[in-house]
Amino acid sequence: MVGTAIEWYDYFLYAAAAGMIFKDVYFGPLGPAAGTLVAFLSVGLSFIFRPIGAVLAGHFGDRWGRRKVLMITLILMGGATTLIGILPTYATIGAAAPILLIVLRIIQGISAGGEWGGAVLMAVEHAPVHRRGIMGAAPQIGVPAGLLLSSGVLAVMSYVAPGEAFTQWGWRVPFLLSFLLIIVGFYIRHGVEESPVFEEIAARQENVKMPLVQLFRRHGVLVLLLALVFAGNGAAGYMTTGGFIQNYATDPAGSIGLERGAVLNAVTLSAASWLICTLCAGLVSDFIGRRNTYIIGFLVQIAGICALFPLVNTRSIGMLTLGLVFLSIGLGFTYGQQSALYAELFPASVRFSGVSVTYAIGAILGGAFAPTIAQALLQNTGTTGAITIYLVIMSVIALAAVLLLRDRKGIPLGPEHEKLQRLSPVRGIGTTDYTKITMD
């Protein structure tokens, strides 16, 4: 949880700063509208490189182990974030500034692509069978914790360095703090033992030489469905984690024009709500199953999406906070059980590749360009209604994908059960009787 929180603190910090700061100090010469769009594009650009990180991490994670990969991703992410904190602006070094910023964002994307899969498997493969949901929620909690931490630090700095001071130097402090977080995360991860499932795979000398090839050859449909499941969560979630709401609500040229610190406080509170609901979803899924929890979660998420912009558009910070908190309930219940779901649907030999690549593809389909799409819809229509329709459609597609999956709660995860794990978890493909899978 701590390691993942540090990784996503770095990742979300960039997204929030893109909408509030980078659009001016790095992309300002493009003009207000184009600068904002390009800033959000730079957020989404990193998602294109997440599959590279997922492929590399999946390949070496299935062959070398989960722990080593997690150490590397932590250093890559933290190092890139720290360098952003000292990067000169366009006014200082010209076009080289946005180019270097984008390069560092790409490094963040590669790191994020490899981070989640390793963290998930370390949690779920260590967990008792009947507690995979709640323990698998630990790395999931790290994501809203990263948002809470990044929004909280930015909110503090907006008061420490108000107004122009925040634009000049205040925004850099949260990025520089990442260096200290790297040390903390490295110390924690260094003390974690390797996944018992991977140790068993290594002992049996059953490592797959080309796990990615095997993954798409045998589980291509599953990868697509699970990617769509995550895309539905990601598109809605990236309204805040991608910085769109922060920019929309604080833009002085817009119709809302709320104070920056108050909006960041609202996002921080919603992140806390998201964290709690994520934990609850993992716990609930241990009792009613991953699939049923997802169904409930997407229904609540759709309701939250429909309420979000009408509440934000009241120009009341209280209503904005209510809208974000309501949405975060659905986000939590379509996210907390994801670790256990993914781990239980892929065979042990290709599990790291499966969860990492699927997560990365889902991030591209959902969160990658959601802020950019939302901004483009806003500029072209002049209202937020089109954004609501877009997010609802993504959620409905994700719900449909969930309905096509079988629940495999309690399936053995070790390599000795590889034959059972390879049976199709997709409804309509295969005629497997999963009622014989128990929690024993």
TrEMBL record:
Membrane association type: Multi-pass membrane protein
Q: Which residues form the Major facilitator superfamily (MFS) profile domain?
A: 1-409
Report the InterPro entries cross-referenced here.
MFS, MFS_dom, MFS_trans_sf, Sugar_transporter_CS
A Pfam short name:
MFS_1
> Can you say where in the cell this protein is located?
Cell membrane
Q: Which GO terms describe its molecular function?
A: transmembrane transporter activity
Q: Does the keyword Transmembrane apply?
A: yes
Q: Where are the transmembrane segments?
A: 33-57, 69-93, 99-124, 136-157, 169-188, 220-241, 261-284, 293-311, 317-336, 357-378, 384-405
Keywords attached to this entry: Cell membrane, Membrane, Transmembrane, Transmembrane helix, Transport
Name the PROSITE patterns for this protein.
Answer: MFS (PS50850), SUGAR_TRANSPORT_1 (PS00216)
Domain of life where this protein originates: Bacteria
Q: Main subcellular localization, coarse class?
A: membrane
Q: What's one GO-annotated cellular component?
A: plasma membrane
What the entry lists under PANTHER family is as follows: SHIKIMATE TRANSPORTER
The name under which this protein is listed is MHS family MFS transporter
Organismal lineage: Bacteria, Bacillati, Actinomycetota, Actinomycetes, Mycobacteriales
